[in-house]
Design goal:
By secondary structure, the chain is an all-alpha fold. Helix content is about 75%, strand content about 0%. It is built from 19 helices and no strands. Helix 4 runs antiparallel to helix 10. It is globular, with a radius of gyration of 21 Å. GO terms for molecular function: L-amino acid transmembrane transporter activity. Its main location: membrane. It is found in: Membrane.
Length: about 450
């Protein structure tokens, strides 16, 4: 059987752009008020939440960089599960990621892009229809022009930090009065502030998707590890500056009152309506950059899994030489994303998850699954295979602690609902594991 060698399409700059581009672009723009609300209106506590939330991505990426240095095989982080633990676990978590976790995030993020495009006063139906159109355009882009999709990713990353910097830098030196808003005195929230980590993790989510394109990265053993280190550091710095700057310009009272429109009001106050519209366009491109980056990585997962034998589908395993991906496998991801977009519409329409959305619980469950990876790194450190104490011991321990804190924060938001959806995620993974076992019995 002839082995098809994939082209090395992405360098270090594009790989870092992928991490920054996937993570920055949606959550930070419409989750600030949620974080501030869980912090009881206390700006300092809100910044503490952001810093604590960064532990998962900073220390998690430092840990996984040790695995990335040693492996660049197709399948990304799921190859690590199969290689070090069991291919059944890799299959279960891989199928969950490809058809539940990432598609729900893609669906919500494209919807957010539609909200910024149409405005918060538009109907939910119009927003979902535009989101569906955006998803179609990004699908065509990623299937028929990998180069153009990668270029759009780099471009969106370069321009998407403009609104963040435009608000962050002005906010540092802002001397104007806050806009009028009902006064909200910071309140004691007890341990409830941990719930602020749940919307925050949406703003940090998606960084591991880059591991799925490791075979297409130039010099992956060096560039992937570097990208996993430098990307998260830049994201944390930008988030802290943006959060602080926005609060300096509008004040926490006004942000809590304005909600998702806070960023739009801030740009209008600083730059006027004309430039504000230009910055809004940049934000829309930034959000679409998130969708594009996640879709780019996710569409390649089923093909990689089929190639490894985790999914029994010859059509999925066959690589299209012209487009350098499996079109049937890619379209299966897109089809599921459309289904989750429809589910998101129903959940939003009937307010089934007040103050949340379908992606957040999947994010909590997904971060818990990373504990397996951190344990692998700890085991390699204990055996002396990993020599670096920071990346082999300290980082994975702090990453595990962060994942457990996130779980606690999620349960504090709505114990019954969160427990229900976590159980759904668990049952889905168990069903995927049973699917793997069935395939193995048929082979044997």
């Amino acid at each position: 059987m002839k082995v098809v060698e994939e082209k090395k399409a992405y360098g270090l700059a594009t790989t870092i752009a992928m991490i920054v581009g996937v993570v920055i672009g949606s959550g930070i723009y419409f989750k600030v008020d949620d974080i501030l609300n869980y912090a009881g209106g206390n700006v300092g506590l809100g910044m503490t939440i952001i810093a604590l939330g960064s532990f998962a991505i900073v220390f998690g990426s430092l840990s996984i960089s040790e695995l990335a240095i040693r492996h660049s095989e197709a399948g990304g982080i799921f190859y690590y599960y199969a290689h070090y633990i069991h291919p059944g676990l890799a299959t279960a978590l891989g199928i969950f990621t490809a058809y539940v976790y990432l598609p729900t995030v893609v669906a919500v993020v494209t919807w957010v892009a539609a909200i910024f495009t149409l405005g918060t006063q538009s109907s939910l139906e119009a927003q979902v229809l535009l989101a569906a159109l955006y998803l179609f355009v990004l699908t065509v882009l990623n299937i028929f022009s990998k180069w153009l999709a990668g270029y759009f990713q780099s471009l969106s990353t370069l321009i998407k930090v403009i609104p963040l910097i435009a608000i962050a830098l002005v906010g540092l030196f802002w001397q104007g009065d806050f806009p009028q808003a009902p006064a909200i005195t910071p309140v004691a929230v007890g341990w409830g502030w941990l719930s602020g980590l749940v919307p925050l993790y949406f703003a940090y989510d998606g960084w591991t998707v880059v591991a799925s394109i490791a075979p297409e990265i130039k010099n992956p053993k060096k560039n992937l590890a570097r990208a996993f280190i430098f990307g998260p550091m830049a994201i944390l710095a930008l988030y802290l500056l943006f959060f602080y700057g926005l609060n300096r310009i509008l004040g926490p009272d006004y942000i809590l009152m304005a909600g998702n429109d806070a960023v739009v009001h801030a740009t209008e106050l600083i730059y006027g309506k004309t430039i504000s519209k230009i910055l809004l366009l940049v934000i829309i491109i930034a959000v679409l950059g998130v969708s594009n980056g996640m879709l780019l990585g996710t569409m390649r997962l089923p093909q990689a899994f089929a190639q490894l034998g985790w999914i029994k589908n010859p059509k999925f395993a066959k690589l299209n030489l012209k487009y350098q991906l499996s079109i049937p496998a890619s379209l299966s991801v897109v089809a599921v994303a459309y289904i989750w977009l429809a589910v998101h519409y129903l959940v939003s329409k009937f307010n089934l998850l007040p103050g949340s959305d379908i992606s957040e619980i999947a994010i909590v469950f997904n971060n818990l699954s990373f504990v397996f990876l951190y344990i692998i790194v700890l085991r390699l450190y204990r055996k002396g295979i990993i020599k670096n104490k920071l990346t082999g011991l300290i980082a994975p321990l702090l990453a595990i602690l962060s994942a457990l804190i996130l779980l606690l924060g999620g349960l504090l938001t709505n114990f019954k609902t969160v427990t229900f959806f976590l159980l759904f995620c668990l049952l889905f993974c168990l069903a995927a594991f049973a699917y793997y076992q069935k395939n193995q019995r048929e082979k044997g």
